[in-house]
From TrEMBL:
Annotated function: Receptor for glutamate that functions as a ligand-gated ion channel in the central nervous system and plays an important role in excitatory synaptic transmission. L-glutamate acts as an excitatory neurotransmitter at many synapses in the central nervous system.
Transmembrane domains' residue ranges: 167-188, 228-250, 415-436
Subcellular location: Postsynaptic cell membrane
Name recorded for this polypeptide: Glutamate receptor
Domain Ionotropic glutamate receptor C-terminal: start-end pairs: 44-398
Length: 483
């Protein structure tokens, strides 16, 4: 009996010693991840990430992408080595019903990884359990569509779309004003109408309107101006019309090739109101919980739609989402920066103009980790040096010819303000030249008739504008009626 008890005590003591040594070894291994080894080597960090183009991709049995280049730059600045592992469940990180976290957030909490370098959105729920660095990429929530998902008939007046309403109003006003100035200056200029009593002025108001319309369509029309003052106005109008037509043709061409005006869904409200296109997002993503927690009625409707059909509209991966948008009537709600990449790689895809929920991608680490502040400072230095912009341009390079298909908008008055100003200056110069021409003729006539220049100038003005003649005709008409 004593031998048996002695044997049991020995076995128990041996097991306790083995357990203690095992725990000590695990602690030393964890420390080796964060601190240099005794031989003076670099600290080694275990990095968890997720496969998503262009952040992390597998090429020739190696990982590459935006996040891998960022990790390499950070390791060079902070002098650490790293070991990269792809997250086991393929999730970003969401809390389950029993309070546990999935994805990369869960691996950090379980100490399976030291940091997470991935397109991981900084949210309040994640910030409560892990620590995030300064965001290395800014993004938002957008809608990814196929251009031909829903065909929308063009408006009957679609040809008016290149210019805004203000520009069309200004063009009509400029046309009428220019034609009136042509009519007025042609009557005032002696070079255009030397003998008002004996000659007929070809620049009537209707002819002036016809001249302006012909110039607007680059057609040569009569009457042809003779006086310098009339030619100044005509030249200003020609310059105006040439520049205006060039702007119209360029903007109309961009409109036809962009497809923006034909896109039926411009906002999230448009997405909710229609019934032809299904829409969803990544299952368990921050985007899904953004709509769940939002108090906006439109956002609540989007969440209720996705929650009721979660088995059908929620996707597992980003690649699955893009493929589904391309092959079916499906709109993907997700990170706008990732959607920009999809639109750059696949020219038949387009992102709707509205972007909501501004947020950023950050590097996650355990709370109170000494690496959080170091990585944040390093990210800020990379941003200040332009390295982050370089990486963005490197991995977001587009294969589509048109880079502005979703940037088109009608020309605003500010864009053509200088053109209207040039026309106004030309009209003013033409009127001034006509007055100078008439003044010179009146001065010569006053010397021959021995009258004051002002009286002769006034008579010329009245004659050319038919003031006296109209008055005399009305008097003769009234006299005949009284007789």
């Amino acid at each position: 009996m004593d031998k048996g008890l002695h044997f049991m005590l020995c076995v128990t003591a041996a097991m306790l010693l083995l357990r203690e040594s095992s725990q000590t070894g695990e602690k030393n291994d964890q420390k080796m991840l964060l601190h240099p080894n005794p031989e003076g080597g670099l600290p080694t960090l275990t990095v968890t990430t997720i496969l998503e183009d262009p952040y992390v991709m597998v090429r020739s049995a190696e990982l590459e992408g935006y996040c891998m280049d960022l990790l390499k730059a950070l390791a060079g600045m902070l002098h650490f080595s790293y070991r990269v592992k792809v997250v086991g469940d393929g999730q970003y990180g969401a809390v389950t019903s029993n309070g546990n976290w999935t994805g990369m957030i869960g691996e950090i909490l379980r100490k399976e990884a030291d940091i997470a370098v991935a397109p991981l959105t900084v949210t309040s729920a994640r910030e409560e359990v892990v620590s995030f660095t300064t965001p290395f990429l800014q993004t938002g929530i957008g809608i990814l569509l196929r251009k031909d998902t829903v065909s929308q008939e063009m408006s009957f007046f679609h040809f008016l779309a290149p210019f805004s309403k203000e520009i069309w109003t200004g063009l009509l006003f400029a046309y009428v004003l220019t034609c009136f100035c042509l009519f007025l200056v042609a009557r005032l200029s002696p070079c255009e109408w030397n003998e008002p009593k004996n000659e007929e002025n070809h620049f009537t108001f209707l002819n002036s309107l016809w001249f302006g319309a012909g110039s607007l369509t680059l057609q040569g029309v009569t009457p042809r101006p003779k006086a310098v003052s009339v030619r100044v106005i005509a030249a200003a109008w020609w310059l105006f019309t040439i520049a205006l037509l060039a702007a119209y043709i360029a903007n109309f061409t961009a409109l036809l090739s962009s497809g923006t005006e034909q896109l039926p869904i411009q906002t999230f409200e448009d997405l909710v109101k229609q019934r032809k296109i299904e829409f969803g997002t990544l299952e368990g993503s921050s985007t899904f919980y953004y709509f769940k927690n939002s108090k906006n009625p439109i956002h609540q409707m989007i969440y209720e739609y996705m929650d009721k059909r979660r088995d059908h509209v929620l996707v597992k991966t980003y690649q699955e989402a893009v493929q589904r948008v391309m092959e079916s009537n499906y709109a993907f709600i997700g990170e706008s920066i990732s959607q920009d990449l999809a639109a750059a790689r696949h020219c038949n895809l387009i992102r709707a103009p509205e972007v909501i929920g501004a947020r950023g991608f950050g590097i996650a680490a355990p709370q109170a980790s000494p690496w959080t502040k170091k990585l944040s400072i390093a990210v800020l230095k990379l941003r200040e040096s332009g390295d982050l912009d370089y990486l963005r341009n490197k991995w977001w390079e587009s294969s589509c010819l048109s880079q502005s298909r979703d940037r088109w908008s009608p020309l605003q008055p500010q864009a053509l303000g200088g053109l209207f100003l040039t026309l106004g200056v030309g009209l003013a110069l033409g009127v001034i030249a006509a007055v100078v021409e008439l003044s010179n003729k009146s001065r010569h006539a006053a010397g021959h008739l021995k009258k004051s220049c002002c009286s002769v100038f006034t008579e010329e003005m009245c004659t050319r504008l038919r003031i006296k003649e109209n008055t005399r005709q009305s008097q003769e008409t009234s006299g005949r009626a009284n007789a």
